[in-house]
Automatic annotation (TrEMBL):
PROSITE patterns the record matches: GGDEF
InterPro entries, sorted: Diguanylate_Cyclase, GGDEF_dom, Nucleotide_cyclase, Rev_trsase/Diguanyl_cyclase
Superkingdom of the source species: Bacteria
NCBIfam families membership: GGDEF (TIGR00254)
Origin species: Actinoplanes subglobosus
Name the UniProt record assigns to this protein: GGDEF domain-containing protein
SUPFAM superfamilies assigned to the protein according to its UniProt record, in alphabetical order: Nucleotide cyclase
CDD domains the record matches: GGDEF
SMART domains (UniProt xref): GGDEF
Keywords assigned: Membrane, Transmembrane, Transmembrane helix
Length: 495
């Protein structure tokens, strides 16, 4: 690794080490509200500073997603201070508190940053990724509805704002789940900054989910929160989330996170398949859990979620089948096309010639075949180089294709050798076609050709063998000419 690369990676490493020490020290702080509050807010604001410093090193058009992440981290970490001040000085602990807008500000800001990254990484629509994100979000959305949102009585006007605030948190988490899943399904770089961002969002989701579980545990949850080591560890999850954003932005690969790339394949990897399967099984798992208690309270919600998941799975299968069909068509096309010239290759020619002879037999029409070979192509390659030789083959094949009729077929037989199928063409038609092709040959080059007209009896291999013999005769006669093969002694026609 060069000294320049080491220097470029040093800010992220230094910040990560300092932040890790700060989070470790947090575990041993005295049990004093203001000490702990100041430490949490300080770590959060340090993450914001790292985000702004890292974004400043990037070109201005690439700073927006990092600014949005910084806004979300600043809002959430500032909410810690606001919550403690509101509780300690004003006794405000009932929802909604003055801190809730700050805590909730994390979700739209981070979702906006993720949306910008996804849009820049995937310039084309990726419906498969969208369906995957919708499937996972729908599954977890049922959990949020059954265990968080549905139990809230939104009809009580006295507590409506409190309940709406309580519901806003799981909705925000679902938004982050959807955007994080979509980011994971995007194209582009998957270097360290990508995974630091993903890790930060995952930490936020783990922390929020832990609070929801503890709240549903009642007195047991309150007892766990009362344990200093447990609450400290849970708070540290959010501190890690604050820090990882900053590490990602300071990393030398931060610019690559938003770099555009081709859409990712629509295939299903093992990890993604397991995640989709797990999300799809949430509905029956919830139904089984409620059935075991003897009271199904959310039957309609479970049924609606199951229906949506079923439709999403069908849509994903349809997209996957369509992708496989496109890939199969592409493979078939590549198997029958020459990669350099784009003309049909030998495989396609071997399929087409017998069919052409059969059509000529049914219609009682003549058909001619010519084999063309660029003169002194090896010498041209040695003089000008192989790239120039490739350009000559491409230019010559395009020129010959334009000089032939629409019904004629030209294919690359191998190397500098090409074959031409001339339906409904006798000797005169074939010679005129070869004259036009010879005149169109670019870069002052010429070719030798052997022309054979089908006798109505011979096989395709025998017809090609006669054309090939005529080609060798043209080479032997001095090149830059066309030889016509006859059933007996071939005759010469100078081009």
């Amino acid at each position: 690794m060069s000294e320049q690369r080491v220097r470029a990676g040093r800010p992220a490493t230094v910040f990560a080490v300092v932040a890790a020490l700060a989070i470790t020290a947090y575990q041993f702080l005295p049990d004093h509200l203001w000490w702990r509050t100041a430490w949490q807010v300080g770590v959060g604001w340090a993450g914001v500073a790292a985000l702004l410093a890292g974004a400043h090193r990037l070109p201005r058009p690439e700073r927006l997603p990092w600014w949005l992440f910084a806004a979300g981290v600043f809002s959430n970490s500032t909410g810690i201070a606001v919550a403690h001040v509101a509780e300690a000085w004003y006794g405000l602990i009932d929802l909604p508190t003055p801190a809730d807008p700050f805590f909730l500000g994390l979700y739209p800001a981070c979702a906006g940053g993720l949306a910008v990254l996804i849009r820049r990484r995937d310039r084309r629509s990726d419906w498969a990724a969208l369906v995957d994100a919708a499937t996972i979000t729908t599954g977890f959305g049922l959990l949020a509805w059954v265990y968080v949102i549905s139990p809230v009585n939104l009809g009580d006007p006295m507590d409506r704002m409190a309940h709406a605030t309580q519901v806003a948190y799981p909705i925000g988490d679902l938004l982050l789940i959807a955007m994080t899943t979509r980011l994971l399904r995007s194209g582009g770089s998957r270097g360290a900054p990508f995974w630091w961002i993903t890790g930060s969002l995952t930490a936020f989701l783990i922390g929020d989910s832990a609070w929801v579980v503890l709240d549903n545990m009642g007195e047991t949850g309150e007892a766990l929160i009362g344990l200093r080591w447990f609450s400290t560890a849970l708070e540290s999850v959010f501190l890690v989330a604050f820090v990882l954003f900053g590490v990602a932005c300071l990393h030398r690969g931060a610019r690559e996170v938003a770099a555009p790339a081709d859409a990712r394949p629509a295939g299903l990897g093992k990890g993604l398949l397991a995640l989709l399967a797990g999300a799809s099984l949430i509905a029956p798992a919830v139904l089984a859990a409620q059935t075991a208690t003897g009271q199904v309270e959310d039957g309609w919600s479970i049924a609606a979620c199951s229906a949506v998941l079923f439709l999403l799975v069908v849509a994903r299968m349809a997209l996957l089948i369509r992708h496989v069909e496109r890939q199969s068509d592409r493979v078939r096309e590549l198997a029958r096309s020459d990669e350099l010239t784009g003309l049909p290759n030998r495989r396609a020619w071997n399929d087409e010639l017998p069919r052409a002879l059969e059509r000529a037999r049914r219609n009682s029409e003549p058909v001619a075949v010519a084999i063309l070979d660029l003169d002194r192509f090896k010498q041209y390659n040695d003089t000008h180089g192989h790239p120039a030789g490739d350009q000559l083959l491409k230019a010559a094949s395009a020129a010959w294709h334009s000089a032939l009729r629409d019904v004629d077929v030209i294919a690359r037989f191998g190397g500098e050798e090409f074959v031409v199928l001339l339906p409904a063409a006798d000797v005169g038609d074939g010679l005129r076609a070869m004259d036009r092709a010879l005149e169109a040959t670019p870069l002052g080059q010429t070719f030798s050709a052997g022309l054979a007209v089908w006798d109505g009896v011979e096989t395709s291999d025998e017809l090609l063998k006669r054309a090939d013999a005529a080609l060798y005769a043209a080479k032997a006669a001095g090149r830059n000419r066309v030889e016509v093969a006859a059933s007996g002694q071939p005759s010469s026609a100078a081009a």
